[in-house]
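Standup notes, protein team

Yesterday: finished cleaning the Seriola lalandi dorsalis set.
Today: Adenosine kinase structure.
Blockers: none.

Input for Adenosine kinase:
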Amino acid sequence: MPTASENTLFGMGNPLLDISAVVDKDFLDKFGLKPNDQILAEDKHKALFEEIVKRNKVEYHAGGSTQNSVKIAQWMIQKPHKVATFFGCIGTDHFGEILKKKAEEAHVDAHYYEQNVEPTGTCAACITGDNRSLVANLAAANCYKKEKHLDLDSNWELVKKAKVYYIAGFFLTVSPESILKVAKHASDNNKIFCMNLSAPFISQFFKEPLMMIMPYVDILFGNETEAATFAKELGFETDDIAEIAKKTQNLPKENTKRQRVVVFTQGKDDTVATVGEKVIMFPVLDIDQNAIVDTNGAGDAFVGGFLSALVQEHALEECIRAGHYAANVIIRRVGCTFPEKPDFH
């Protein structure tokens, strides 16, 4: 099997510092949050960020969906370092320095676009039981500029070095033109472009940019809630997850050399994937409910594990197995964090 080399995996997205704390239902109600959701912060959430940092046992972790995934992929691969490249925008501030340090510790080759107009983005992870409600204040992450960063020769060279590309749907709210440039490069060169539905609000409110990128998507990830919302927005008229996967697979595609693969996770239920003309269910690893500490990052970890096997050109079944392993490790810990080494064979 080919081993991964430097900069084989390319990710681009919103680098955020996760601020996670265990909260109660009253806290969720106060800010009008659902127990298990991802939303963008509005003015009414300003106080939430001030309040959450005052809670006892608040933890800070480098986050942002795509950055989490490439970091997990790098952790699963271990050596060489810097298999994963990451682009995104941060502020010239303390939180930005933390993100740079954390990326370095994870051996990810992060090239941030740094600007001083907006502070580094943050994401409040409000944990109740095994649920997590995420409120993202993009700030600097929202300032990524194609012409100021992606188009620079030295950066574009790194893009060209990659064989596998992964961008979470969240980045559609920031720079669809950057995504399109990367997606077209992948398609034109028969490389693998992966994307994630990321959250129900992406399909609901950013359907146009999502569908502009869809013809270039070789592998699409999502969870059961996101899949259902996507199906509703596209008028699939079914809530059967296997049928949604099939219909999504059959959406128009630019590079016909690769059949689209659709992978939907469903928490503790089977992962659904299109394999050729079939839809197959893959059971996740058993875990005692009491061992689950925090499901924040489970989806990102699944993608990270999957990508680690994909860049090594493993079969789809192997990629899913690696994804299940990584997710199983991450849900036993707070935030998207991991032990020193994986125990995956």
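Follow-up from PR in the comments: The radius of gyration is 19 Å.
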